[in-house]
Amino acid sequence: MNTMNVEVxxxxxxxxxxxxxxxxxxxxxxxxxxxxxxxxxxALGRFVIRYDPRDSGLSTGYPAQAxxxxxxxxxxxxxALPAVFGASRAHVVGLSTGGWIAQLLALDHxxxxxxxxxxxxxxxxxxxxxxxxxxxxxxxxxxVMNGPDWSDRPxxxxxxxxxxxxxxxxxxxxxxxxxxxxxxxxxxxxSTVNLAFIDHGERWRERLGGIRxxxxxxxxxxxxxxxxxxxEALAREIPSARLLTVEGAGHELxxxxxxxxxxxIDND
Length: 268
What we know:
By secondary structure, the protein is an alpha/beta fold. The chain is built from nine helices and eight strands. The chain has helices at residues 38-43, 71-84, 98-108, 138-145, 153-167, 175-184, 188-197, 228-237, 258-266; strands spanning 2-8, 11-18, 25-29, 47-51, 90-95, 113-119, 215-220, 242-246. The longest helix has 15 residues, at 153-167. It is globular and about 45 Å long.
């Protein structure tokens, strides 16, 4: 594993890579670098790039509720990373809100994307869901509305760990990993809320039919944040996409799907 800071589009991104740059590239796009377990990164058997997006982990951050960038800026950051390592294209795997970036990479930078994997995400940006899509579960909204005192870092860390517990599925909850993710953020408040405050630009759901790369949609049957109907919509609206439903999984990267994700990437 190699750890570094990469400068793209005038910002600093914390990046870790696995494998040899000469191998096909896999770009992992998630809420943070630690969204992707090291064991998963190694299991992919390719040249794997995982990173902290802006306002996440150790990358460039901005004041809470006042971020000066757009969703398309985050897409541009992701699009620039493979070239830093000499790759002209990459297999793109997007998790949760990183799935928005992954979808827009496939739509706006099609030459860059060799294959697309969408995990626990939805086809619309922050805000109310489309009428045909299920909204966040009540317990998720209750946790969001009852946030901590953001000036009290220990309380914030406990809140974030508790929130991940709410989002998890029926299997064992890895509290230690959740705590590492929470503690990594320089500014947990900005990391938690800023994505909701940026300009998300034009809708893209109506463009999903334009995605022409092999696509795997992975969704937990017990996802309380983006319930299963969101993954079903993605699989239905992206041509030839395949849906893998993991029963009992929540809003997470299900270990049960790792082999399927690796096989999907290997098929290219």
